[in-house]
Every structure is written in structure tokens, then in C-alpha cells.
Amino acid sequence: MQEKDFNDKFSVLRTRAEEMLRSASLDQEDFSPLSPDEIQKLAHDLMVHQIELEMQNEELRQAQIKLEELKDKYLDLYDFAPVGYMTLNDRGLVLETNLTTVQLLSMERTSLIKMFFSQFVCKEFGDTFYLYLQQVFESQSKQTCEIKLTRKDGTIFDAQLESIPVQDESGHYIRCRTILSDITERKLAEKEKEKLRAQLLQSQKMETMGTLAAGIAHDFNNMLTVILGYSSFLLADKNEGDPEYKELQKIVKTSQDAADLVQKIRIFGRKAEMILVPLDLNRQVDQVTKLLSHTIPKMIEMDIHLTKDPVIIKADSSQITQMVMNLAVNANEAMPQEGRLSIQTENIVLDNDYCRVHLGVKPGPHVMLTVSDTGRGIDEGLMERIFDPFYSTKTRDYRKGTGLGLSVVQGIVHQHGGHITVESEVGKGTIFRMYFPALKHEIVPEYVETKIPYSAGGTETILLVEDMDLVRELGVIILEKFGYTVLSVSDGQEALDMYEKEQGNISLVILDIIMPRMDGKECLEQLLRINPAVKVIISSGVGQEDLINEVVKLGAKGAVNKPYGMRQILGMVRQVLDGD
């Protein structure tokens, strides 16, 4: 506007001067020369406007320089933006692009211009891209989609497109501005997050089921105590040739098998007792493979690779044996004709990257035990259920298992502070990898078997505290048969009342740890207040080691686990009574 006003003034002044000169030259007679003042004023005005024009020109020149600088900055921002910018027409033809787009697609800019963008879209996303482009122009609004693109070098990456249509001079939408982003890392992070979420849900589910399983095991153990106790009691009065001897043996054997099943349930629920000691995993695996060599069919090849380095973990040897046996049995059933069973040990170090995508895993040195087979494999749709209890891909047959095999394996691994992974492909086989925290410079003790001593009985008075009627009645029958005098009550409060009355006669208290009204721990505390020297045996069917250990530390002299047989309870009673 300033430049226009100046030009208008200059034009008027120039026109006026030209008219005056023309009049002077055409009509010399009428010529009236300008006065000196007028000439001076005219010259002054011309000089002022010349200076203004020069200043205007300088301003325009400076503005042009700034405009060029801004253009360069804009081009730099456009070309080197962290995302790709493109202009596409309604058919997906590339009209304009920045350098970032060129780099993302591994192309030259001159080659990319006038190419159809669909040439970079992976085949399975072709329809998605065309529908997306159609939606952009039909909706006349911003649209977003995620697809996979192929670079010129053949590599594939996850990409996000964000497009908004723009109008031409006639108001038609025939082009769109598009932002291209590489979202590969975001997709990987989402996948890792989803994996962790799935692990958390699985962990929560297994924890809930484990709690339920432990509760069932507690009640079932009480029932088994009655069955096993009475059958053992009856069998003790029989000779091998007597009628019903074999039948009673079968009852005892079946009860013991049921107790083993309960133990598996408790392992799955992570409630089973463990004796954790430094264990040489190579030595343990070697012992298991010797057992397997007699049970695995000859047509299955066993391939054992144990590292020469020490592989020491803190573990319960019997549970590690069961874990490997369960996996070997699974592998055997997956290879009905022939195949190869491989067992391998290795020292590894788990880093932070690994632990970030495996819930609850801590970085550091670990021992990895790998058990793999070349069997039929596991379908991908079944993988998330293989550790569920009582789930099996095989036809249900009690003679072939309970469906607890892999649940028990997972429970054992978790009880030892480790974790387990599985890979499988149908027709090629399955690989289980178990990771246990490694111990360094530990002395591995030799295994020494200990047995509870057995005695014919005694004449002392015993206070039996048990809330389940059948278990309490069984205890009374067994103890009285072997000479003891038994006082029986059903809860902790009754036990305190009875002990205060008969303290001088009672030599031993057998105390159930889980009872209504007053539990075993509180009852023991009260008994110790009455008599600090009281002898107490804790009876438990729940397998809560922490609680048992806590009660033993309070002053209990021993503990016996349900279901217990006649020999076990009598042996523990005599051991505590004869102790100092």
C-alpha cells in the first residue's frame, strides 16, 4: 500500500511537469516562465520523491532477501522433517515429496515423483490403501491408516499415513497432503506390551487357579487321611494270606496314588513343600536320563548335551526330576513312531532387554535347561492353554495322565524362582526352555535318605486337636490301638480348656494348623504361655511352608503332613515324646 501511494504521487507530479513543458514549447507567445520559487519547489518535490523511491527499493530488496531466507528455512524444515511429506493426486500419483519420504522408501526424489504410491504398498494391504485414498477424497476430511510398505531394497516396515484433501483453483478436491511415518518401533513396543499384558493375565489366572487348587488339595488331603489311615490300620492286622489282604493293599496303593495327585495339584498351586539345596543340574539330569533310557522306546533317539561348566542352582532334586520326567513323557507321546528327544544344559546371562519382555524375570546369570522333541508340534491356537491344569490335546484317558503334566512343570519352575518358554511348530516339534537363577561357588551336598523311625506305641496321654470328625476319630483309633490315652477336641479354644484341666497328665499335643474359631498358631501361643515346655506336633494338609515354619519357630517340636499313614504319625509321636 505504501509503494502504491508513492507511485501515484510520483505519477501525478510527472504528468504535471510534462504538461507544463508541453505548453511552454507549443505556445511560445503565451509562455509564462515559472517563477524561481515554483521551479525550486518542483525540484525539491522531485528530489524528495527520488529519495523515497530509493528507500522503497531498499526495503523491497531487504524483504526479498528475508523472503529467500524464509523459503530456505521452510525447505529445510520440509525436506528434513522427522516424517515424510507427500502430495498425492486422487489416483495416488506422487506429485511432490520431501527428502524424508525419499529416505524412508530408499528412492531418489526424481524417480519417486510421478510414481504411483501403491507400488510401495505390500500386496496384502493393497485394498486397504485404495479404500483409504477413496475415503480421503469422499469425506473431504483428515483420515489415517496403518499399512506395511516395501522399500526399494525389499525390506518391509510398518507405516502410518495421515492425509487431508486440498482444493484446486476451481474448488475441486483432486490432491491431498499426506504425512508418512515409520511406526515399526511403535508396533514392536505395542507387541511387547501386549505380550506382557498376556503374561500378566496368565499369571493372574494361574495364581487364582493355584489358590483354588490348594484349597481343594487341603480338603482332599483330609479325606485321603481317613481312607489311607483306616486301610493301613486294617492292613496292619492282616497277614499276606488272609482274606481281603490284597483288596486292602489296593486301597492303600490307590490312596497313595491319589496323594501323589494331590501333591501335583499343590505343585501347580505352588503350595508344595520343597527342600531347596544347591543342586548340580548336570548330575540330576544325568540321573533322570538313566531312568528314561529304560522307559523311552528304542525308536526314539536320546540326544543329551550337558555343558562342562558347573551348572549349580538352588532346587529340590525330586521336583527337578519330576519336571524333566513330565517333559520327557510329553515328548514321547508326541512321537508315536520315531523321533529325537534332546536335553541340554547351558550357562547364560539374561540382559535387561530380555527381562523387559518377560514379566517378573530379573537380569543376571541363569542356568538354561532345554528339552526338545521332533514330534507333531502344537498348533498356535492351543499354545496359550498348554499350561492350564487338566487341559490336554490328547484324548482323555486316566491311564495316560491327568492333564497336569505341563501345569506341574510350570509350577515347579516358578517355585524355583525361574521361568519357562515354549516354541512349537506343527510337524516339526516343540522346544521347552527353563531358566533358573544360577548359584556360584556352592558345595553340592550328597543325598542322604532319612526315615521316620517306627515304634509299637506307648502309654502317654495325648491331646488330639482336629476339626474334621473323621480324621479326629481315625487318630483316636490309631493312637489308642498302640497304647496311648487320647483326649480329643475339635478346635483351639476347646484344646486350651482341656489342657488347663489335664495339663499334669498330657504329654503331647497333636495340633491341626487350620481350624475354625482359633487356628493352630494362636492355640500354640496360648499353650506356650500356660506351659513353655509343652510338646506339640503340628498337623497340616494345606502345604503352607511359611506358616508351618513360623509355627515350628514358635516352639512346635515337629510337623506331619496329611495325608499321613499309621507308621508316619506313630513314628513322629514317638520321636517327639522321646526327644529332650
Describe this structure in words.
This protein has 580 residues and is α/β, with parallel strands linked by helices. The chain folds into 5 domains: 2-78; 84-182, Beta-Lactamase, CATH 3.30.450; 190-268, Helix Hairpins; 277-439, 2-Layer Sandwich (Heat Shock Protein 90), CATH 3.30.565; 461-578, Response regulator (Rossmann fold). 48% of the residues lie in helices and 21% in strands. The chain contains 16 helices and 17 strands. Strands 6, 7, 8, 9, 10, 11 and 12 form a 7-stranded mixed sheet that branches. A hairpin with a 4-residue loop joins strand 1 (84-89) and strand 2 (94-97). The longest helix is centred in the middle third of the chain and has 53 residues, at 184-236. The radius of gyration is 45 Å and the shape is elongated. It starts with a helix and ends with a helix. 28% of the residues are buried.
Mean of pLDDT: 80
Cα end-to-end separation: 113 Å
> Helical proportion?
40-55%
Unreliable segments of 5+ consecutive residues? 26-31, 395-403, 443-454
The name of the CATH superfamily of the largest domain reads Histidine kinase-like ATPase, C-terminal domain
Number of structurally distinct domains = 5
Q: Got a strand count?
A: 17
Q: Sheet with the most strands?
A: 7 strands, mixed
* Range of strand content: 15-25%
Q: Helix/strand-derived class? A: alpha/beta
CATH architecture of the largest domain: 2-Layer Sandwich
Kindly provide the name of the CATH class of the largest domain. Answer: Alpha Beta
Shape: elongated
CATH fold name of the largest domain: Heat Shock Protein 90
**So how many helices?**
16
Radius of gyration: 45 Å
